[in-house]
Amino acid sequence: SCVGLRNLLQGLNFSVKHYSSINHLQTTCPCSKIKAKKCHILNRSGCTCTCRTAPLGSILPWRFFSCKEGTRISSKRKQDTSVVTSELLHKNLLKSEQENWNDISPIYKPMTKRIKETLKELHNKYTFNSESPRMRFGENVYFEENGCVFLSKADDDEGNVDILFSTDDLGFSDAFIQRIRISPDQRYMAISLKSESSEEATCIIMKLGHFPVVKKVIPSVFSFEWATSDVLYYTTQKNLKCQNVFMITFTNQKHTKLVYAEQDARFFVDIYLTKDRRFLTINSNSKTTSEVWLVDCRNPFELPALVQARTKGVIYHIEHRNDELYILTTYGEPAEYKLMKAPVASSGKENWQLVYAVEKKTKLVDFEMFSDDCIMFLKNAGHLYLNVISFVSHSVQSIKLPTWACEFELESHPEHTTSTCYFQLSSPVHPPKRFAYSFKENNLIEHAVQEVPIITNCHTTRLLAQSKDETLVPITVFHNMNSKELHRKPLLVHVYGAYGIDLNMSFKEEKLMLIEEGWILAYCHVRGGGELGLSWHKDGCQHNKLKGLHDLKACIMLLHQLGFSQPKHTALAAASAGGVLAGALCNSDPGLIRAMVLQAPFVDVLNTMMKTYLPLTIEEQEEWGNPLEDEKYMKYIKSYCPYQNIKPQCYPSVFITAYQNDQRIPLTGVLQYVQKLRKAALDHASRTTKKGNWIPNIILDVQANGSHCDSSWERSVSE
C-alpha cells in the first residue's frame, strides 16, 4: 500500500530493540473463524495511523535527540571517574525527583480520578464508529485490530475472518503492529512490531496459507517494501540512524545482500514503493537535501539507478506514471513544493518540467497519486483544501473543506486505479469524520458508518498576531459558545515551532473535556513550524530561532488583549522540541503565564549541540546551528536556551513528564533543568517579602514506561 506526503512531511515513529521473546516464536499460527472486535487505534503505515514512515525529504519530528550520554576523555582513569560521577549524580537526581513526586502526587488524586472517568466516557462516546482501515487486494481484504491481522472476503456479509497473525499468540503481548506489507501475489506478509517503551522495531515475515508460518525474523528494521512477490527490501536502524538498505529473497536460493550504504551522518535512509508498484525508491535525505535511487521492480536484482545527485537545499520525492517520473520537489524559486515530471530515462533536474506549483504561504500537507489524477491536501490561512490535478484534462480543481476541520488523515489506497480517494477530517474538539472524493463524479462525499455527534457548542476563531518584526502569526482559538466573561476563563496555549512540523491538531478527548468545562484552547502557529510552508520553517530555525519566541509572546499578548483569559489564568503546553520556545518564554516573560506543562521537553539546546558524539547531533545542526564551529551560533543558542537562562525570578508553576526509556531527550538534562529551575524560584522567594508572593509548584513525573511522547491511550489517560 502507498502512503502520502504526510509521511514525507510529518509523522514518524522509530523502530525498537529486538525482543528476547522472539526466540519463543511458534512456527505456525493457527487460523480460526471469529468476529473481530472494533478498535480505536491502528498503528500501521499505509493506513490512518500516527506511526508512519517518511519517504523522501521528510522533516522527521520525532528524530531529534539521543540520551545515550558519555564523555570522551583520553585518559582511561579520568573517563572511568567521570562516568561513575555522572551516573551517581543522575541516580541521586532521579531518586530525589521520584521522592518529590511521591510526596506531591497524592494531592491530585481526587481530581485525577474525576478527570479519568470523564475522559473514558468521552472516549467511549466518540469512538463507537471507529473501524480499522481496510487494505483490499482483489477479493481479499486485510485489516488489523487489537494486535491481530485478519483476512476477510470482500463479498462476505457475515463477518467471517481468518486470523493471520496475533501478537499475543507469538509472545509479543507488549508490542503493537506498526506496519504491514503484503506481497503482490499475497503469499507473504511482512509486519513490524514496536513496543511503547522502546525505539526499534522487529520485522516478522510470514508465509501465508491455510497455516501461516513464520519464515524470517529481522531485528532493528525501520522501513520495508516488497519489490516482487519474493524479494523484500528493508532498512536497518542503529543508534537512531538508518543508513543501510538490504535485499532478502524468499526464492529457492535464499540470501540477504547489502544494496545501499549511506556515508554522510546527516542523511537518513528509507524506502518507498511508487503507487503503481513499478519502482522501489531508496531515499537518502537530510533536513534540507535529498537523493533518490530507483530499483526497477521488474528487475529487482539490478543495481539501483540514480534519479538526481543530491544538491544542497533541494528536497525531492518520486512517484511514477506511464513511464514518467512525477517529482515533488523544492527545486527552483520560490523554494516551496512543486510537482514536476521527467522521463524515466532522462531524470536529471535539467529535464524536470513544471506541472503545478503550490502558492506562497501554503502548506502542502499530503499528496496521493492515482492512475489519471493526483490529489494535494493543502492548508492556507488555517483552512484546508483539496487540489485535484487531472493528468488527462490537464486541469486543477480546488475544493475548500469544512471550516471546522484542522487536520487531514489520508487512508490507504493500495490499488492506484481506484476511482475514489478516502480521508478523514478532525480538529482538537471534533472527532474524525470520513470523507471521499470521487474522480468519476467529481465531488466530495461525506461518509459515516454511524453518525458522529457534532460538537455544536464550540466556536472556532482564527486570529493573526503581529510579531516583533511585524510578521503576522496565525492563531486558532476554540471556546465554548455558551461561555460568558471569557477574560475570567482559563486558557491553554499550545506551541511547537520546530522542524517545519505543524502543531498537532487532531482530535483528543481531553481537549473536548476542557471546552465543556469552560476552558479556552489556543494554538499558536509560530515560525519554525510548517503551517505557512517551507519558508515559515526557514524563518524560524538556526539564526532565526528567536523569531519563534517573539511570535509566541505576541500571540499570548493578543489573546489577553482581546479578552481571552488573562495571565493568572493562562497555561502553556508543549512537547519535545516545543519545550525550547515554551522554556524560553518562561525565562523571558514569566508574567504572561501562571503554569507550564511540558512533555519530554528539549530544554538544554546548547549542551546537546556541543556533543557531536551523540548519534543525531550532526544532522540537527541544520535546525539549530553548529556552536562548535561558529562562535555566533554559540552565543545565539545561549541567548534563548531554556536551561542556560534560568535566573531567580517569579516563575509559573511547571509540570514535566519525562520517560526513562526516552532515547531522544536526555533524562539527565531534564533532571538538571528541574533542579536549577526549582532553586531559582526558591532563591527569588527567599529574597522577596512582597505581599502575595508565592512559590510555584515545579513537578517532574519520570515514567518508567513509554518512550518519547509515545504511550498507549490508557497510559496517556493517567498522564
From TrEMBL:
GO cellular component, one term: Golgi apparatus
Coiled coil: none
Domain named Peptidase S9 prolyl oligopeptidase catalytic: residues: 506-684
Domain of life: Eukaryota
Subcellular localization(s) per the UniProt record: Cytoplasm, Cytosol
GO MF terms, alphabetically ordered: serine-type endopeptidase activity
Keyword entries, A-Z: Cytoplasm, Hydrolase, Protease, Serine protease
Domain Peptidase S9A N-terminal: 128-443
Enzyme Commission no: 3.4.21.-
First-tier enzyme category under EC: hydrolase
GO biological process: proteolysis
Main location (coarse class): cytoplasm
Similarity-based family: Belongs to the peptidase S9A family.
Name of protein: Prolyl endopeptidase
Organism field: Mionectes macconnelli
